[in-house]
Structures are given as C-alpha cells and as structure tokens.
Amino acid sequence: MVSREVQAHNSVVRIGNVPVGGDKFAVIAGPCSVESEQQLMSVADVVKGHGAVALRGGAYKPRTSPYDFQGMGVEGLKLLKQASEATGMPTVSEVMEVGQVDSLCEYIDCLQIGARNMQNYGLLKAVGETGKPILLKRGLSATIEELLLAAEYIYDAGNPNIILCERGIRTFETATRNTLDLNAVAYIKQRSHLPVVVDPSHGTGVRELVIPLSRAAAAVGADGIIVESHLNPAEALSDGHQALTGEMFAQLMQELKPFVEAA
Ligand code: PEP
Ligand code: MN
Fold first, then answer.
1. Residue 138 DSSP class
2. Is the pTM of the predicted complex or chain greater than 0.95?
3. What is the ipTM metric for this complex?
4. Which CATH number covers residue 58?
C-alpha cells in the first residue's frame, strides 16, 4: 500500500544508482522527444555538466494531433541507452502501450506512465509486473485520490518502486498550459510514503515560468523535478515553447543549489 498509515518512513526509489526520495533534490532533465543522435547527445552532455542526475526523453509520444511527430520508437530508446552509457546518467522514458513494455525494460531504467495513461489499468498492471522504477504522472483531470489509487495498481501488481509526478491539471485558467497543483505535493507527502516529483515544464507550458516553479517545487517539499531542455528549442519537434535552453538550465541548477546539495 502507498499510504503512510502502513509505512511511516519515506520510500527511496532508485533509478539506476540515483536515489529519489532521499535527502537530495533530484533533477531529471532532457528533451521532450528524442529527435536524433546529435540532439540527444548534445543536450545530455549539457544537463549532465550542470548537475542533472538522470536523463529524460520520449521515444513514444502521446500527441494531441495524429499528424504531429509521434516519436522515434525503438530507435529513440537505443539512443537513450547510448546517451546513458556515454554520460553515466540513468534514463526515464514513456511507455504508452502494454506491447512496448518489454523494449522499454530492455533499454530504459525508469518507465514513465504519462498523464493520458494514468488510468490505463492494463498498462499499470503490466508495468507493475516489471519491478522497474515507474514514474507515474497525474492525469490531466485526475484527483489526488485517483492518482494514489492508480499507484496502488502498480504496487498491488508487486512493484513498490513508484515515483509520483505532479505535472499540472486542467482548470478554468488558460494563461498557462496547465495549473501546477503544488497543494498536491504537500498533501501527498502527508498521505503517502512515495517520492513525489514535479514537472514544471508541462505544469506551466512556458519556458520563462519553469525556473520559478522549480524553486517553488523544491520549497514545498518535492523530492525532485523532471524538466524539459533543448539546445535549439525553436527547432524542437515537440514542446519547444516550454524547453529550457542550455543557459537557462545552468541558471536553474544555480538557483536550486541549496536543495541539490543538501546532505
Ligand atoms: C512528456 O513528459 O513529454 C509528456 C507527454 O508528459 P505528460 O504525460 O505529463 O503530458
Ligand atoms: Mn513534453
């Protein structure tokens, strides 16, 4: 069970050799989509150089329009593995269907369940059977209770290695892509022993808001962030408007220093 009533101490989930949920604030960074070897390797080097502990990148992309870039598929997973071996950073990537689980497990260290699949119970059971670390994102219109029960599906299938992710929810507000619900972070930390990370990229949809909301996430007690970065956002094949440039990523890490370095 994911409730604090059955386990009082915080769970620490390891992505490769990187603990999430311990004393250090974990910064997971990388592009929205893996686009090419050059794109991935260059951004991986930059985020690693500034202190990211894990690399994110989507190879299977849940796009609103079927005419938009859908991801590189297995070729993207192989590039993530290559980038991981080159930088030493473990990887996080989204699995969209049960049929993709085996290849994700072969190439990737932590499987992301995207917001659109938070209540895909067949997929939750399938990733629950892998034993791999799972980053479970809150659904676009899911309550906190529904998120915790989705996590329970993974846990009940035999996998306690779950990281919860607040990535913004749909509200009446349209100035930003989503409304980042930082209440959820503080609330879940009370209710559950699982680590919680924040995604300020999808939470805001606006590059300029990512650094302030990352600071807010650290201040409210999140265990880390998962953030999108691209060295040439204007050319990005997805979510370029919310990607941090290399310079902005450096600035982010500078501002998070007290949290990242906490003993
Ligand atoms: C992503 O991480 O690129 C993504 C699609 O996230 P979400 O499922 O939160 O929209
Ligand atoms: Mn994205």
1. P
2. yes
3. 0.99
4. 3.20.20.70
